Amino acid sequence: MTRHLSKGLALAVAAAGLGAFAALPTVELGSSSGAQPLTPGWVYTVSDDVTIDGSEAAPSGLRMTKPGDYLINVFSNKTLRVRGANASGRETPGGAGIELAPGCRLFITGFGKVEVTGGAGANGRFGVFHSSSVVR
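^ that's the sequence the OP posted. Answer follows.
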């Protein structure tokens, strides 16, 4: 659901020196399995406890790949947990909890809690792999 900032959030954004966000649309972040790509120029709110996990197909939890500013507001007594997916053998590396590309700026406001964890690396047995010969 898209809506504009509430009066309280608009005041918090202004107090944080991020007044440019006050006129932007907002969207609620919800729990998911698989990466959630975010759009620059939007304000994302967390009003319930939210867990976002990366997946093998999209290893990073939250992805910000288009240059621009991103704002996440976490309400009081709420937690945003973001976890990158673990590596999948030799196919997929471990994912970032939050993937922030060059030219992207992330602002996190509010009085909630944010926990971000990257995915674990590859299984040691796949540390060296060559499809046409035996590695000794």
